[in-house]
Each structure stands twice: as structure tokens, then as C-alpha cells.
Specification:
alpha/beta; Rossmann fold; 3-stranded parallel β-sheet; 9-stranded mixed β-sheet; about 525 residues
């Protein structure tokens, strides 16, 4: 089933092999017709993760980067739409030399080509390939066919891992293996036999269930790996290694360990699990939380992980709470009510987003943070809304807004980039934003400059709208610091309030969360957590 942990399992396998001295890269296959993840609804699909080279990908690419501590580029992400698009373009260019182009073998062949190219580009010893979705889904058949064909051609170079959920129904009280048996049978019908089964459950698998799966799924009992729920995802590689999963994988390929270990990783996990550490309470104001009766935090996954990395690095424990922006749109809400809701936080983050829903609520929260000196970090839209709030409250521009909301407004302090106007006119939305890594120059004496420790930085972007240069002088005269700009000074990338006016009020046009790693937290998040602790 979806959400069972294939992404973190893939990342963890990669981490284990890395810890044994091998070079690893990872690929995510999404079965959607979408060419990339950029046009998908975050409450349905989760976060859109942006790579260094500007690809809009599935959130699992972010997990790969965090676990492996390497940049994963666009060649490591494929969708059904992307694969078909390539095959059709090649057919139009006569690259098949007049052959009848068919779904099989040409679509699986393109999948295999992409896997091999990604491995060569990364100079990897191992390529971890995660097939999204669920075994038996119609849209996955071609990717499973590609996997079968790869194994047929290179039987000693391909291993299959099935991640399967073993439920323990509360009224029954027994772990059930039948869903896993059916999953293996379905996988067998695609011509694939798993070499390893990762048994996901709320608890460890016992010996009785292990033997049962081995018997009915035609697999060595030693290759059935327990994958119980953990306190945090970074424990998973350590849990797997308790069962010598890495050694079992290397044995499958006839390889030996290269001297290395997971000591630093283990040290990090021990800190993360230390509940005696001082707590810091962070509120995240968003609108992509609810899906029916349930809360989906995946929409802001990288922000959450970046907060954790920074907090644990400072030997603190994060307490993260969701704040629904919509509840602050009630005009009858008093300042006293807001103070009760917001003063309990040490710091508040407004992350990225799109559209008008919840925006006025976010602006009210930003105003409260600014006036009451609660440490504030605004990311992308969170930066733009901080600019709008400052314009309305401090610069007396009552109708200040962004063109994204008020198309024909007179006081647009956030405006469309010139390069984006034609895209919107032509309804050319997919993959056309300002995407990927761009340089930024930091001003001396600013919070950002002190946090980064250098003058020039590289950060990842995903937006169409920018700070309007028409209002630059006014904002600076009113005390807003334009702390970071593009090298040619045409684009404002960071805004701040001076530290004598506010302990930490920073808005960034980019997405720093995408570059945070467990053993190397992002400097802005560290500076934010330090300010929040005070």
C-alpha cells in the first residue's frame, strides 16, 4: 500500500551500502502520466521536491538526498509521462529507424536505458530503484516488465526487494501474513521473485510468521527482514543492520565489505532519540494539511526534516505543531485569542505554497510574529507574504498584495517575473517556474550573512513571482533590510528586520529546506532554532 515506507526503505538500503564503502545513487519511478511532480496537488501526492538542476520531483528524491548526502539530479526521476514522451520524440525523429514502435519492448527499454545512464553519471556501484505505487496496479506493469528484463539479462547484477505490510488487526491480535503472500503471488505473475522481503508492521516479525512467509513465498527465511515502526526514519538503517541486511545484500552479489561504518549516523540517531534534551516548540503555518478527516504532513516534509536536523544538531528536541492558516481568517478573532494560540511557540515558520486560500490568515500570523518578536522564518510564499504584511502595516500601503492574488492590483509589492508573463498567457505551467539552484549575494552585518558565514550562496528556487523593485527604496527607508540579492542585484532573495528591532525575522525567496541533511543541517534553520531557543 502507499505510505508503507518504500522511499525510506530504499534510502536506508542505500545508506547501509554507503556505510560499507560503496558508491550509491537512487532512482524514483512514478507511475503517473504527469511528466513531473510539479502539477500534482500536494495534499494528494505530498511535497514537490526540487533538485539542483531544477527538476520537480517526488518527495522520495528528498529522502535519498538526506540519507545519502548526495545531490540527486533530474536523470534519477522518471514518470510514465516522461518515459512515453521520450519514446514518442525518438519515434518522431526516426531514431527507431522505421521500426514499428510498441509499448513492449520499447517503453521498458527506455526505462532500462535511463537506469543505466543514471548509474554511469553517478559512477555508482549500486543503483537503488524504487518503483512507486503498489504491486498489481495496472500503471506499474511496464516498470515491472523493465525490471524483469534487466534481471533476465543481468541475473547476477539485479536483486528485488519487496516492502510489504503485515497488519495486526486489533480485534484479532495476531500478525497476518496473507496480504504479503498475495503480494508475492502478484509479483510472481509479473515474472519477478523477490530476493528479500521487508516486513513492515507496528512491531517486529516473530519466528512463526517468518517461517510462514518463507514457506509460502518461496524465499530464504534469512532474507525476510523485520521493519517495525520506529521513533524516526533515521533509525531504519540501524534497525536493518541488526539483521545484517547489508551483508546479505553483498552476499547476493558476491561482494565483500569495504571498510567503513555508520558510526556518525548512529551518534546522530542517539541524539535524535534522547527524550531528556531540552525542547523547542515550532509552529508551522500551512494549508495543505487536511485530507478528509486526516492530517497529511507530507506536504511540508523537507521543512519538517530541516527543523529536526537543526534542532538535533544543537542537542535539542523539536516539538512541531501544525497551525491551520484558515482559522486566523476569522475577522472576529481577538488579539488575546491570537496570543493564546501563538505565544506558546518558540518560533514560527510559514513555508511555501500557492493560491489565495488561507493567505490573509498567514499574514495575520506574520504580523503577530513581527510585532511580538516571535522568531519568524518565511520560505518562498512565506517571504512574499512577510513583504505584503510589512507594506500594509509599516509602509501604509493598505492594498498591498501579490499579482498572484490581485491580478490587476495597483500596489503589487510582489509581481510576476518578466520572463514568466508569456508562460502564464500561454497557460504553459508545467516545469516553467524559476526552478533549481541560483546564486545569491549576502549583505554584510545581516542575520543571513552571519548564519551562512560567507558572502555568496547557492540555493534552490521554485516560484514565478518576485519582490517588486519599484518599492525597494520605500521598504529600505522604513527599515526592511534587503539582505540577499541576485549577483546583478536585480532580484531580492532575502529580507530581514534588524536584530535591534527583532530577534529573528527572515524571509527567503528560495527553499533552504531542500539542502538540509541529517549530518549537515542548513545554516538558516540552525540560526532560526538558536533564536527560537532564546
Amino acid at each position: 500500500m502507499s505510505g508503507v515506507g518504500k522511499g525510506v526503505a530504499s534510502s536506508s538500503i542505500g545508506k547501509i551500502l554507503q556505510g560499507k564503502g560503496f558508491k550509491v545513487t537512487a532512482i524514483k519511478i512514478d507511475p503517473y502520466i504527469n511528466v513531473d511532480a510539479g502539477t500534482m496537488n500536494p495534499t494528494e501526492h505530498g511535497e514537490v521536491f526540487v533538485t539542483e538542476d531544477g527538476d520537480e520531483t517526488d518527495q522520495d528524491i528528498g529522502n535519498y538526498e538526506r540519507f545519502l548526502n548526495v545531490d540527486i539530479l533530474s536523470g534519477n526521476y522518471m514518470t510514465t509521462g516522461r518515459v512515453y514522451q521520450t519514446v514518442i520524440n525518438k519515434e518522431r525523429n526516426l531514431e527507431y529507424k522505421g521500426k514499428c514502435v510498441e509499448v513492449v519492448p520499447h517503453i521498458p527499454e527506455e526505462v532500462i536505458r535511463r537506469i543505466k545512464v543514471a548509474g554511469k553519471r553517478a559512477k555508482a556501484d549500486f543503483v537503488i530503484v524504487e518503483v512507486g505505487g503498489t504491486v498489481g496496479e495496472y500503471q506499474n506493469i511496464l516498470f515491472l516488465e523493465a525490471a524483469r528484463m534487466m534481471h533476465l539479462r543481468h541475473p547476477n547484477q539485479v536483486a528485488f526487494v519487496l516492502v510489504s505490510y503485515l497488519p495486526v488487526p486489533s480485534k484479532v491480535g495476531e500478525m497476518k501474513t496473507k496480504p504479503t503472500q498475495y503480494a508475492v503471488m502478484t509479483l510472481n505473475s509479473a515474472g519477478i521473485q523477490p530476493d528479500f522481503i521487508l516486513c513492515r508492521s507496528d512491531r517486529e516479525i516473530d519466528e512463526v510468521r517468518r517461517k510462514k512467509i518463507a514457506t509460502f513465498c518461496n524465499i530464504d527465511k534469512n532474507n525476510i527482514i523485520s521493519a517495525p515502526d520506529v521513533n524516526n526514519i533515521y533509525e531504519i538503517p540501524i534497525n536493518f543492520e541488526k539483521e545484517n541486511f547489508g551483508a546479505k545484500i553483498l552476499k547476493k552479489f558476491g561482494l565483500n565489505n569495504r571498510k567503513k561504518d555508520l558510526k556518525e549516523w548512529t551518534k546522530f540517531v542517539n541524539i535524535a532519540n534522547d527524550k531528556s534534551l531540552k525542547k523547542v516548540k515550532i509552529g508551522i503555518v500551512g494549508k495543505y494539511f487536511s485530507t478528509g478527516d486526516f492530517i497529511l504532513s507530507d506536504s511540508y516534509l523537507s521543512v519538517i526534516e530541516a527543523v529536526k536536523h537543526a534542532t538535533w544538531n544543537l542537542k535539542l528536541q523539536p516539538e512541531i505543531e501544525w497551525i491551520d492558516a484558515g482559522q486566523f481568517e476569522d475577522k472576529g478573532m481577538t488579539t488575546k485569542t491570537m496570543s493564546i494560540m501563538l505565544n506558546k511557540f518558540n518560533g514560527i515558520i510559514v513555508p511555501g505554497g500557492f493560491g489565495s486560500r488561507g493567505i490573509e490568515g498567514k499574514i495575520r500570523v506574520i504580523k503577530y510574529c513581527r510585532e511580538n518578536k516571535i522568531p519568524y522564518l518565511g520560505i518562498c510564499y512565506g517571504m512574499q507574504l512577510a513583504v505584503i504584511e510589512f507594506a500594509r502595516s509599516v509602509c501604509s500601503i493598505k492594498n498591498a498584495n501579490t499579482r498572484e492574488i490581485d491580478t490587476n492590483g495597483k500596489s503589487l509589492v510582489i509581481d510576476i517575473m518578466d520572463t514568466q508573463k508569456k508562460n502564464l498567457m500561454d497557460k504553459n505551467y508545467g516545469g516553467t517556474m524559476r526552478l533549481g539552484v541560483y546564486p545569491c549575494v549576502l549583505k554584510n552585518g545581516t542575520i543571513s550573512r552571519r548564519a551562512y558565514g560567507g558572502r555568496k550562496i547557492l540555493e534552490r528556487h521554485r516560484h514565478r513571482y518576485e519582490f517588486s523593485n519599484e518599492f525597494r527604496a520605500l521598504f529600505e527607508n522604513k527599515g526592511l533590510i534587503l539582505a540577499g540579492t541576485s549577483p546583478d542585484e536585480t532580484l531580492v532573495e532575502i529580507v530581514e528586520l534588524p536584530v535591534d528591532k527583532h530577534p529573528f525575522f527572515v524571509g527567503v525567496q528560495f527553499h533552504p529546506e531542500f539542502k538540509s541533511r541529517p549530518l549537515n543541517p542548513h545554516p538558516l534553520f540552525k540560526a532560526f532554532i538558536k533564536a527560537s531557543l532564546k
